[in-house]
Amino acid sequence: MVEAPIISFKNVNKIYSNGTVGLKDINLEIPQGQFLVVVGLSGAGKSTLLRTINRMHEITSGEIKIDGEPIHAYKGQALRLLRRKIGMIFQGFNLVNRSSVERNVLSGRVSYYPTWKTLCGLFTQADREMAVRSLQRVNLADKLYTRADELSGGQQQRVAIARTLMQEPKIILADEPVASLDPLTTKAVMDTLQRLNREDNITVIVNLHSVPLARQYADRIIGLQAGQLVYDRPISEVTEADLNEIYVTEAVQA
Amino acid sequence: MSIPEAPRRSWMQRWHVKGIVVTSLLLVLLVTSSRMTGVDVGMFFSNFGQFLNLLVRMSHPDWQYANVIVRPLLETIQMAILGTTIGAAFAVPFAVLSASNLIHNRFLRGLTRLFLDLVRTLPDLLLAAIFVAVFGIGSTAGVVTLAIFSFGMVSKLFYEVIETIDMGPLEALTSVGASKVTIIWYAVLPQILNQFVSYFLYTLEINVRASTVLGYLGAGGIGVFLQRSLSEFNYSQTAVIILATLAVVLVIDGISNHLRRVLL
Description:
Chain A is α/β, with parallel strands linked by helices. Chain A has helices at 46-53, 76-84, 101-106, 115-120, 125-137, 153-165, 183-199, 211-217, 240-253, and strands spanning 7-15, 21-30, 35-39, 61-66, 69-70, 86-89, 171-175, 203-208, 220-225, 228-234.
């Protein structure tokens, strides 16, 4: 790799306070603009891996660098600025159900404002227009003033993506974004992520349970097992048998 | 692989040991406490006649008296609104500081909760007596009393509501890079607003009733008139005061129900 990676893990370990091993000696480099899919069983450490990147989880030892900068020492404003450039999408969408779609989308922009302005809702006209554009990109502009809980699951997930776009992220982390969606809406959400990856050159990291989906969208697939990185191949070298093994060997062990 | 055998309930589960033990403990507690305090249930029934007598005397409300109590009743409502609003406003930050899902610092949380427990321990009548002594007879003492009383009650109700919210939106706002205060404003408040309003109105209703009692101590409002009519054995006036208070409580209840429907 000629270009420096946007994210790099070096000997990263994570042990939870109850002694459970979350991540074990992870070494990983992710180049800018890659569509990376992480596969593995529930509890293999996929969510943990994702959340260490935006410091929603702290690591026990090792080093994570983003844009060449180690992130472990960030605090307060510096940590918020780090998180600003990393969008995150969740299995449960995590919208504020009682708020309008507009407010939910604008909440993705709050880190560009001082706290008192966010409390008064003093968003600039440009940002309000940006909210509309973000919704247009996920084909939901007509829902601007709808309450979030009146939307279907797939629509809510796309609103969540629009919220993330307001951050103007360089990286998007998606933690099983389609696990609670039907096949059709799954395609809409995954296509949206793919488009952002290709059009905006955003680095996308997605946790998935589905092997076919992983093969369809990924540039590269990594596999986790009990917190360890057991598989790492570009999509051209991935075979069905490899992936089945990630699931089967552990299922037998378990 | 053989067909797995269905798991068996343990001896404890089969005989509902926990449920039976807890229920019998409660019964024992109830009986012993009534023994120790010397409550005579029989007296309640044997003296029931006096109670009926009182009801009969109250059954001829003196409707003329309604004109006299309009002003003090309004004063009572104003006192209750002021007291509840001030109390609830102060309760919000304390409720946030007491909520275990927002504040992970156990020491800070324990300290605020201890303070709130202390406030709730002070009986409102004691508070009224103190503030009548401080501010003199009048509604100021009543408002301050109600404010402190509401603060203690509302903050507990509020933090219990906060602890039941969905944490997903908070996680999302954190990942966006929002500050703590912004997170609370965007992800917590919308989730609890309608319950806050309903608890606020519930407290208001309690305060309207409480302020009738506070009037006894000279803390203003309708209570002064209640006390006067009772000490004069003028039960037809007492009846009007009680009915008027009931009307106010019903109205607040109606507003509360309506707002809850609208805000849901």
